[in-house]
C-alpha cells in the first residue's frame, strides 16, 4: 500500500461539528481509501484551502448541456418551458454526446464524485458507463393526456432496457405535476418506487402551485394555450397532490429513497405531509437555477428548522451558467450566512450520497471510505467559501 499525505488549513471530514485546523488526510494512493485524518505536526508545511469529500450533484440534467448559454433569464417557469420546447432539439446526437462528456469531465475535475441525473433519452449512456463518476439515472417521463400513459410507459420501459444493457443504474421517474396526467404520474411513480429510488420536481415555482390551488396563473394559461390538459384543481399544494398520486401507485408508508427537487414553495403543512408518509425523503435544492428562472430561493430556514435532509444540485445548463457545486455553495453562503460551512458541505456531499445509497463509500472523509478528495481554494480565515473560491480534485 502506498500512503499519501496531504494537508490544508481546514479539513472537513464531516464526522465532526468543526473542521480540523491545519489538518491532514492520509489515503491509499492506488484506491483512494481514507487511512487517517488529524492535526498536522508542529512545523509541518500546511497547504492553503480546505479539504472536503467529493461532491454529490443531487440533481442534474447533463444531457441538456447543449443548451448552455441559450436561454433568457427571469422568464418564470412558463417562459422557461417555452424555451425548452423551442430549443432542446437543436443539436444532433454526436454534438450532445461531446458536450455531455465535456461537462461530466469538468464536474469530475471540480470534485463531483457522484450524481443523480435526469435523462429523457439514451444520449448520455455511453459516457456514463465509462466515466469514473457514479451516476444513478432517472428516466423522466412526460405526457399530459391520459390516453398517452400506456405508450409513454412502454417507451420508458424500453429505455430502461437500454440502460440496463449498458450497466447503468436507471429507472423511470415522474417529472412534475404540470407535465403529466394523473394516470402517468402514478404509473411512473410506481416504476420508480419499484427500483427503490424516485426523483420528482416539486414546488419549483408559484406558477406550479397556482395551477393546483386555483387553476390559474401563467403556467395554467401556457398549458391551455398549447391545447394540453391540466391537472385537477385540488385547492392543495402540488406536493400534496403528488402524495395523493403516490397513494394510487402504492400504499404508504414509503421506505424507498424519494428526492423532492427544488422546493421553492415548500411550506410547513407540506413538510408535515411528506414526513408522515415518506420515511427516506430528501430535499434537493438548486439555488442558482431557481434564481436564473424566477429569482427565488427555497425556504432554507424552514427546512433547517424541520431537520430536513437537504441535498445540493446544479440543475441543467439550460437554467444555470455552470455545473459548479462550489458556486452553489457560494450562493447559499451569500444568502444564508448563518448556516455553518460544515452543514453546507453535508448538503453538497453526504446527504446526496445517502440518497443514492452510497454513503458507505462516499460523502465524508471517514476512515475506510473512498469519497474522492477535493481542495477548495480561497476560503476565508474561518474556512468558509468566498466569491473567489474554486475547487479541484486531489484524488
Q: SSE layout and pairings?
A:
Layout: E1 3-11, E2 20-28, E3 34-39, E4 50-53, E5 55-60, H1 76-87, H2 93-110, E6 112-119, H3 125-130, E7 134-141, H4 149-165, E8 169-174, H5 182-195, E9 197-202, H6 206-213, H7 218-225, H8 238-249, E10 254-262, H9 268-277, E11 278-285, H10 287-294, H11 300-305, E12 310-312, H12 325-335, H13 341-355, E13 373-377, E14 390-393
Give a short overview:
By secondary structure, the chain is α/β, with parallel strands linked by helices. It is built from 13 helices and 14 strands. 37% of the residues lie in helices and 23% in strands.
**Beta-strand content estimate:** 15-25%
Task: Give the class-level CATH name of the domain at 55-323.
Answer: Alpha Beta
Main sheet specs:
6 strands, mixed
Query: On the 0-100 scale, what is the average pLDDT?
Result: 97
Amino acid at each position: 500500500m502506498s500512503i499519501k499525505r496531504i494537508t490544508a488549513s481546514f479539513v472537513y471530514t464531516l464526522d465532526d461539528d468543526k473542521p480540523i485546523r491545519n489538518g491532514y488526510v492520509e489515503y491509499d494512493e492506488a484506491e483512494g481509501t481514507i487511512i487517517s485524518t488529524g492535526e498536522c505536526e508542529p512545523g509541518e508545511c500546511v497547504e492553503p484551502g480546505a479539504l472536503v469529500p467529493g461532491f454529490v450533484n443531487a440533481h442534474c440534467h447533463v444531457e441538456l448541456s447543449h443548451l448552455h448559454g441559450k436561454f433568457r433569464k427571469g422568464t418564470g417557469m412558463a417562459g422557461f418551458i417555452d424555451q425548452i420546447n423551442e430549443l432542446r432539439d437543436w443539436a444532433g446526437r454526436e454534438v450532445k454526446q461531446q458536450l455531455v462528456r465535456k461537462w461530466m469531465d469538468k464536474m469530475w475535475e471540480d470534485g463531483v464524485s457522484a450524481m443523480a441525473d435526469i435523462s429523457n433519452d439514451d444520449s448520455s449512456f455511453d459516457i456514463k458507463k465509462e466515466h469514473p463518476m457514479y451516476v444513478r439515472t432517472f428516466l423522466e417521463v412526460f405526457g399530459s393526456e391520459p390516453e398517452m400513459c400506456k405508450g409513454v410507459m412502454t417507451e420508458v420501459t424500453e429505455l430502461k432496457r437500454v440502460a440496463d444493457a449498458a450497466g447503468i443504474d436507471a429507472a423511470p421517474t415522474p417529472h412534475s405535476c404540470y407535465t403529466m396526467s394523473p394516470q402517468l404520474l402514478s404509473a411512473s411513480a410506481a416504476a420508480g418506487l419499484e427500483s427503490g429510488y424516485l426523483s420528482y420536481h416539486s414546488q419549483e415555482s408559484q406558477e406550479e402551485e397556482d395551477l393546483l390551488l386555483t387553476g390559474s396563473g401563467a403556467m395554467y394559461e401556457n398549458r391551455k394555450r398549447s391545447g394540453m390538459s391540466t391537472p385537477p384543481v385540488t385547492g392543495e399544494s402540488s406536493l400534496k397532490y403528488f402524495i395523493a398520486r403516490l397513494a394510487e401507485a402504492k400504499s404508504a408508508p414509503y421506505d424507498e429513497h424519494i428526492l423532492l427537487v427544488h422546493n421553492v414553495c415548500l411550506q410547513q403543512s407540506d413538510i408535515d405531509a411528506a414526513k408522515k408518509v415518506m420515511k427516506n425523503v430528501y430535499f434537493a435544492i438548486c439555488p442558482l437555477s431557481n434564481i436564473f428562472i424566477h429569482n427565488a430561493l427555497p425556504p432554507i430556514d424552514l427546512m433547517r428548522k424541520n431537520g430536513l435532509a437537504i441535498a445540493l444540485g446544479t440543475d441543467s445548463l439550460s437554467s444555470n451558467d455552470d455545473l459548479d457545486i462550489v458556486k452553489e455553495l457560494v450562493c447559499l453562503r451569500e444568502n444564508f450566512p448563518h448556516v455553518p460551512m460544515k452543514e453546507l458541505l453535508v448538503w453538497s456531499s453526504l446527504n446526496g450520497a445517502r440518497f443514492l445509497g452510497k454513503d458507505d463509500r462516499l460523502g465524508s472523509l471517514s476512515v475506510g471510505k473512498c469519497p474522492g478528495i477535493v481542495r477548495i481554494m480561497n476560503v476565508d480565515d474561518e474556512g468558509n467559501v468566498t466569491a473567489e473560491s474554486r475547487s479541484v480534485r486531489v484524488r
